[in-house]
Amino acid sequence: MSDKTARPENSPDHLHGHSETSACCQFMRPVMDQIRHNPGADIIRYGRRVPNVLALGTGETDTPTPEFITRPVADALTAGHTFYGPILGRTDLRQTIAEYYKSIYGVNLSLDRVIVTASGTSAIHLSLTSILEKGDEVVAILPLWKNLLGAIRLAQAETHGVDLHLSADGKEWTLDLNEVFAAVTPKTRAIVINTPNNPTGWVMQEDDMRAIMDFARSRGLWVVSDEVYGRLVYGEKRAPSFLDVAKPDDKLFIVNSFSKNWAMTGWRLGWLIAPAAAEQRIYDLVLYDNMGPPNFLQFGAIAALKDGEHFLEEQKTRFRANRDIVCAALSGIKGMHYAAPQSSFYVFFKMDGEPDCMAFAKRLIDDHALGLAPGCSFGRNYEGFMRLCYAVSEPLLRDALDRLGAALR
Ligand SMILES: Cc1ncc(COP(=O)(O)O)c(C=O)c1O
């Protein structure tokens, strides 16, 4: 699966960087051309043209945010919490996040290490923007959610991808740590990892985390670990976290989000765990970005962290049952390759005879009103893959699988 041609992952050709530029855009930063095409977003937009499209290309559940989370927000609005809030988030929410880490992860975090952000996406952007400069290189484990790759590019750094491998029996995704270490050059500034991984459901184990953290420490590299699916691991309370193997002053950013665990995608709230020394720098960036997360929404976020375990368990049970339905359906299709996901709510599959994911994604929309995410969104070597999000009701999921089956027959 590895690409031996050593082109940077986010070079313009990979990003389908059509260089057509309208008159006004000629005056914009050239790097804007290179983040122009996001195949996943393009397909979502393409699907919106079709009435009643069954959209399983977006990474969210169809469950609305539960009432125990929305009510405190309504109360906060009524109570007049409509003014600017603290730039790095409300202290009571920062405190609650620290307590959550103590209870779920067994780690003590001082409040200056906990930063509330206006989405996990914002946490990605803030962490990468604060450490990357033009000409820096980033080693990233692929496949990787496109927005992480785009954020690296926007910071004018180059991504050098290290691919996970789909085992010969097709049962699991694996990582060769030696490939990660070999990809590091004197220009490398950071290693970026998303574990549990969107789109494969692969989960990095603690020993590998320790090896990466030790290596990064010895080379003075940052580790940026996106752990937004860290609670959606099947059969465990949580996935391993880089916090399990790190010291408080290690060059480590943990990206997290309220979106996936508690059905809060539309809220645009997340958080960042950083070394205390980075707090002021992140503050400086947020001042010029969005001036901090919405004040009143944070009352709901506190409720999610404090009272959300039961809901999270219910969601996980549902996702796991759906995972089994998807795997049963896919295993009945000849020429289908996938590994049963260990976490998250995606299945990433490859079908013999369908090498062009964009063409396949468009055909699924046009002929079967089914929206899936194209694999090329996750790295250059995934042109033949598609991602299906199964965090939906069972009837909807079965309908989607019927449509996929019909398309492949
Ligand atoms: C790996 C990964 N990181 C971050 C995010 C962003 O989450 P948020 O909705 O908080 O921006 C997503 C959303 O799909 C994701 O898949």
Write up what this structure looks like.
The protein is of the alpha/beta class. The chain folds into 2 domains: 24-64 and 311-408, Aspartate Aminotransferase, domain 1; 70-308, Aspartate Aminotransferase, domain 2 (3-Layer(aba) Sandwich). It is built from 13 helices and 15 strands. The protein has helices at residues 31-34, 39-48, 67-78, 91-105, 120-131, 146-154, 177-183, 206-219, 279-287, 297-307, 309-331, 357-368, 394-408; strands at 54-55, 114-117, 137-142, 158-163, 165-166, 173-174, 188-194, 222-226, 252-257, 270-273, 336-338, 346-351, 370-371, 373-374, 385-389. The strands form 4 sheets. Strands 2-10-9-8-7-3-4 form a 7-stranded mixed sheet, sandwiched between helices. Strands 11-12-15-14 form a 4-stranded antiparallel sheet. A hairpin with a 6-residue loop joins β5 and β6 (173-174). The protein is globular and about 55 Å long. It starts with 30 loop residues before the first helix and ends with a helix. 49% of the residues are buried. Residues 1-7 and 11-19 have low confidence and may be disordered.
